[in-house]
Specification:
By secondary structure, this protein is α/β, with parallel strands linked by helices. It is built from 19 helices and 18 strands. Strands 1, 2, 3, 4, 8, 13 and 14 form a seven-stranded parallel sheet that branches. A four-stranded antiparallel sheet has the order 6-5-7-9. It has a three-stranded antiparallel sheet with strand order 10-12-11.
Length: 512
């Protein structure tokens, strides 16, 4: 079986993740599930980034030790990922002792080969972003990333020679056009950072203690770049003294899935660290868009944060997974509100999908006691319909390979909408009135059941529980992604997959 290694960025343990943070792990899970369904041996890694000044400060404010603080938040993050039905193979934490030991070895290796050196750093520091900026990088005197106030700091630090690898990375990106996706993000990295010149990177701090000490200079702690970014290799068995078989099988990673706001760290800092370690680069890094609340970035200060557990409690996990995957375009930011979630549930899940499944199974039970075979009484309309069903698998494969998850779901729902139209055009209720049309009627219902079955196979990656429930109602185990001419159905009773929601009443009742 072909190996497929996919990661999310690791989530910072400063606070409970909101639905925008949660989108990434659902997106990664959809890709992982799709690849598994296609026969790949998938390894899906996610987890938490647990060191830094912000953690140390928040723990102190809470009156507890940093380890206790990150244990609590990491548990919250893992619970959220589990709530969203994500099928990760490993949930990693950077306070893991083995990870810390390998990070120290990596730091020492880079130092010994001359890629890390000691100097002083003076610059504008943003604590929320844990990043230094020069005068020219500030925007109106504030942090260019988050817009918050910065403070002048000077401290002794170790630096990583980023500039040494600048030309090599630029050449690599130009020779591997799919390395950074989408193209707009790749151009941004090339034009805004690589071509303007890279500064050497500060990789230790002395102003806080909550991180991994430098073994030969313990007043310094290893900063986030070498600690957090290396999680992708340390947890699969990389060791400068000799890596594991697992590492050799899985690396290079097939896909790093990250938010567009941390693209620079993953497409410039991380590849250069790998080059310095003489390791191959990941095959693809995808900077996904953000999920906005009413077209505004989520933040506690704005009071517009929505959490996954709130949404799941109101609407169910599959409805929220579907919304996240369907409503966020490939390269543009998506938007979420309670109103939009309800409209999507009603239009897609209740009307298009749920109604189709209920109608079709009900007709099968009413007219044939649930026993349906293909009588092959075809008409011209059937050939077009069957062609749509059979074209779906290849269409989705092309879209998923290009990470166009929303468009993949749209392709599936095109077939579901075509199925509802097929009912209107074949009028089974009229066919049922004439005994001479019985075999034609059974053919029509069989075609609909096959369309539903193939669509349930196809959207398993997105709404797995719904897919399984459809298979239970169809009472079939056939997971082929094509129309089968000789399938036999013994249907169960239909049950509503998704209830329609009265938007105004629901919003009022739940004070939304």
């Amino acid at each position: 079986m072909t190996k497929y290694y996919i990661t999310t960025a690791i989530t910072y343990t400063s606070a409970k993740p909101h639905i925008g943070n949660t989108y990434e792990v659902v997106l990664a899970d959809a890709i992982a599930r799709y690849k598994r369904n296609k026969g790949y041996d998938v390894y899906f890694q996610t987890g938490t980034d647990e060191h830094g000044l912000k953690i140390e400060t928040k723990a102190k404010e809470a009156g507890i030790e940093p380890q206790e603080f990150v244990d609590k938040v990491a548990k919250e993050i893992k619970n959220t990922w589990d709530l969203m039905d994500t099928s990760y193979d490993a949930f990693v934490r950077t306070t893991d002792k083995h990870h810390e030991e390998i990070v120290q070895k990596i730091f020492n290796k880079l130092y010994e080969q001359g890629d890390i050196y000691k100097d002083y750093y003076e610059g504008w520091y943003c604590m929320p972003c844990e990043a230094y900026f020069t005068d020219s990088q500030l925007v109106d005197g504030k942090c260019p990333d988050c817009g918050r106030a910065v403070e002048k700091q000077k401290e002794e630090a170790y630096f990583f020679r980023m500039s040494k690898y600048q030309d090599r990375l630029l050449k690599y990106i130009e020779e591997h056009p799919d390395f950074i996706q989408p193209v707009s993000r790749k151009n941004e990295m090339i034009n805004n950072f690589l071509k303007t010149g890279l500064q050497d990177l500060c990789v230790t701090r002395t102003s806080f203690k909550w991180s991994i000490p430098v073994t030969f200079d313990p007043k310094h702690v290893i900063y986030v770049w070498i600690d957090a970014l290396t999680n992708y290799i340390t947890f699969i068995g990389y060791d400068p003294d000799g890596s594991s078989q697992k590492f050799k099988e899985l690396w290079p990673c097939d896909l790093h899935l990250i938010g567009k706001d941390i693209l620079r760290f993953h497409t410039i800092y991380w590849p250069i660290i790998l080059m310095a370690l003489d390791l191959p680069l990941p095959k693809k890094i995808f900077g996904h868009p953000w999920l906005l609340t009413n077209n505004d970035k989520m933040s506690k200060s704005k009071g517009n944060v929505i959490y996954a557990d709130q949404l799941v409690n109101l609407f169910g996990v599959d409805a929220i997974r579907y919304y996240l995957l369907r409503q966020i375009p490939y390269a543009n930011d998506g938007n979420i509100s309670y109103e939009l979630v309800i409209e999507t549930i009603n239009n897609d899940l209740a009307n298009t999908l749920g109604n189709l499944v209920q109608r079709t199974i009900s007709m099968g039970n009413k007219y044939f006691d649930g026993k349906i075979e293909n009588k092959r009484v075809y008409e011209d309309i059937d050939y077009d319909f069957i062609e749509k069903i059979n074209a779906l698998d290849e269409k989705i494969e092309a879209l998923m390979d290009n990470l166009e998850i929303a468009n993949s779901l749209e392709a599936i729902f095109e077939v579901l909408r075509a199925s509802n139209k097929y009912i209107d055009e074949t009028t089974p209720w009229i066919l049922a009135k004439d005994e001479n049309n019985k075999e034609r009627l059974e053919t029509v219902i069989y075609n609909l059941l096959e369309a539903i079955r193939v669509c349930a196979v196809s959207f398993d990656f997105a709404i797995h529980n719904t897919s399984e429930e459809i298979f239970r109602q169809l009472n079939t185990a056939r997971k082929d992604g094509k129309y089968l001419e000789t399938n036999k159905y013994q249907l169960n009773e239909p049950e509503m997959l998704f209830e329609r929601i009265n938007k105004e009443q629901f919003l009022t009742e739940h004070n939304l």
